[in-house]
Structures are given as structure tokens and as C-alpha cells.
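Usage example:
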Amino acid sequence: MWCPAMTGTAAMDDFVIRALAAGGGIALLAGPLGSFVVWRRMAYFGDTLAHSALLGVTLGFLLGVNPMIGVMAVCVTLALALVALQRRRNLAADTLLGILSHGSLSLGLVALAFLETLRVDLMAYLFGDILSVTNSDLMAIYGGGAVALGGLALLWRRLLAVTVDEDLARVEGMPVEALRLAFMLLIALVIAIAMKIVGILLITSLLIIPAAAARRFARTPEAMAALASVFGVAAVVAGLLASLNWDLPGGPSVVVSAAALFLLGSLVPLRR
Amino acid sequence: MSTPQLSRHAPPLFAGPLAWTEDLTVRFGRRDVLDRVNIAVQPGEVVTLIGPNGAGKTTLVRAVLGLVAPSAGRVMRRPNLRIGYMPQRLSVDQTLPLTVRRFLALWRPVTAERIAAALDEAGVARLADSAVQTISGGEMQRVLLARALLGEPDLLVLDEPDQAVDVHGQAELFARIAEVRQRRGCGVLLVSHDLHTVMARTDRVICLNAHVCCSGRPEDVSRHPEYHALFGGHAADLAVYLHHHDHAHAEDGHVVSGHDGDCCHG
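Running the assembly step on the lines above writes:
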């Protein structure tokens, strides 16, 4: 594999390896979780949570806690607010999501502007900065990712049942509300750890594009989840190589690769 | 736990009912969808809810299932009652790749052998690896019944099982429900639109119009004035058929004829 950026110094090799490890880890995690986002038609919901992450980062700085904790807290608050608002039923879900999504993103931007003493690389938060991944970022990705995947594996069958039909799941005695909340928490966790890599504006694409690309080739939910992970990792590798070769922004390159994979996949003829 | 108020036609069984309601009232906004409804389902009994559109049949079923909270009154169930619920229809989102076999495995930990047996019993073994989105309405109904039976239910609840299938499918479905009732001795609560099918296959009919208008054995209910008021011309139609059914009943001594060829043509 010829790649000028990878033939440089040892330090360069290091950051490339870290970027690949970070992106690959997130793609692995995004496969099964993103499949659920697609099945549950929650793409816009994921987007809304991601947009609110900037507010979480700002709050984290303000309160002097880890930005990731701030992001988790804001995401969970937003998810709960949405559940409460949906009970009123006089506004459609997509309208509510639009309000919360843009409202929280703008609130994050405004709050950031108030923090005059703080210099935050806004572009890095919006679009990610995969080439500046640190070892502690990697630890957060693999630690948080293991927790998220473990949680998902534990809830897998019941989450699928709730996705297929909530009433049936309820009659079978499954705690539907708790499962729904647990799933939102898992998404919030993924957003918190993926934010720095692909950026809050692009996180949802990493969740849904590989899963959408995998749909045509899968006959079981598990196959779709696994294939989505494979596609996601492929997109990360291709996007990073393109980014290094042609000096392109990392996050967007990964997303473009994923979208290209989706297009290629939809052109492959399937035997029926 | 107080004793439920039983219909006087309920067969006396020492263990008491599987599930019952006590003055169950459900209000949506200002409307009483259910008004002090008392029903009970005994083990081994087939109870059918009939009533015009908007009578609250589905709401009553959903309340018994625990999917709708009572505004007043109570829904009671025998402790550890296992309910098998067969909904009117189920459409699985196209985005979810799901085979029939996998669909049946979602609801409880269950072995592959039991799923295969359930599919076989339902006569849909050949569909095991088909996507749930591609099977027909009648096939889906068999799968849904197989799903409900996999949980070894004490009470089978079916919401308008006759809606998605043609007359032939209906007869088959009801024959199967009768067979399951006989073999497993579970109680059955079902909602139906189809008066003919209902009358032939049920122990007790509850005629609902927000409140319980009348209840009892099918042939008694069909003579009830409130029943006629609700169903009008259809009721007269039905009475002719029932006469026929009564005749068959007197001849061979079975309450449920188990024969579909001679019904539905009053």
C-alpha cells in the first residue's frame, strides 16, 4: 500500500496508527448501534443528540469537568425532555426534534461565545479532528466502546423485540420504557466518545450510512450489524488514507467514503 | 382480592377466573370508552367480545393485557398468569432483516427445536427462513398464533383474528383456536367482527357498547333485545343461522360443532 504520509517519521506513523485505531473502534461500535438507529427510525433523534453535544462540551468547561461527562449529561437531559414533550402530542416528533436540535446547537454556540477566556477549536468539535487523537482519547473510545457494546449485547434480544412491536413486548413483560431509555443512553455514550473523531455534525452519518449499506446484504439483524461494522471500518480506513494522501479533512473524508460505499453497495446486483 | 362478579352463564370452575375486570372504566378525554365493565374469562372458556365500531372492544382487550390503564375500577389477573397475545396485525419495518424463525425467538429464551416444532404445528415450517415482510396476511396470522402459543399461555387473547384473512382462512384459524383450547385447556378472549364465526365457536358472547349490553351463551344473546338494537338487520340474519346451529347441537350433542361446512349461510 503506497501512502506518502505513512512513509514519514516514526511520530507520523504513530498518529496515523492512533487515528486508525480510534476511527476503527468507533466504526466497530457504530455498526450494531447504527443498525438499531436505522431500525427504530431514530436517525434524526441521533442527530439531535449529537447537536446538543456542543452545549455539553461548553458546560463541561464551565463546570471544570471532563467534556465527555458534560456531553452525556446534556444528551440524557435532552432525551428525557423529548420524551416529556412527546406526551403532549400536539406537535409532531420531527418538529420537536428540529426545535431541540437547532435550539441546543445554537445554545451551545452562544454559550461558547460567552467563554471569552477559553479558546476552543470549534471546527474540531463540529467536524472532528481524527488526526489529533491522543492516547487518552483511545482509552476513552475503547473503554466506553466496550461498555456500550456490552450493554447492547445484554439487551440485544429485548431491544429487538421492542423494535418489532412495543405492545407485544409489553405483554411479554418486558420493561419497554426502561429499554428505550437504555438505548438512548447508549447513543449518548457513542456520541460522547465519537464527537472528537468525526465531529458532532457528522456522527449520525457514521451510525446510519454503514448500516444502511449493509441492509441489502443481510437476512438477520446480527448479520446486518456485523456487516455495518465491516463497512464502517472500511470507510474509516479509506477516508483516512484519502485524507493523508491529499491533505483532506479527516472526518468528512470518512463520511464521503461511507457514502461512496453505500452507493457502490446499492449498485451490486443481488440474486433473489 | 374480592370475588369478581361473574356472568350467570359462566361455567362453575373451582379455580376461579383467569382474568377479570371490576367496574372497569376507561376514559379518553371526556368520553367513557368503557363504563363499569365487568367481565371474566374462565379456564378453558372461549369468550367473544362483539359490538359496533367504537364500542370499546379493543380498549377492553388492551386493558386486560395491561396496555391501557383503567381510569376507574380494576383489571385483575390470576397470579403469574401467562398471556399469549395475538394482535390484529403486525407489520415489521422493511429496514429490519428478520426471518420468521428469528421473529419467533425474540420474545423469550427458547430453543431452536421448540421454534421448529411451533412452526410445524402452525403449518408454516416452509416459511421458517422467509423474511417476515414477504409472507401473506394469512401466513402472518399463523405465525402470530404460533408466537403466542410458544409462551405456553394460560390465556390466549386475540384481537379480531378474522380481519386479515378470507373466509377459508378464518374457518381454519378458528378451528385451530378451538383445537388449542381443547388440548391445552387455556382460556380464550377474542374480539370479533364476524358474527357468524363468533357464534359457532364460542362458549360465551359479551355484547359491548361501552357498557356490557348483554352476555351469555351465543343463542341466548342473539335473542336479547339490546343485541338486536345494536346489530339490527344483521342480527335477524344471524338468528336464522343460529336456528340451524341449534338444530345441529341437538342432534350430536356438541356445543361447538367443529364443522364449518354448514355455517355462514343462514
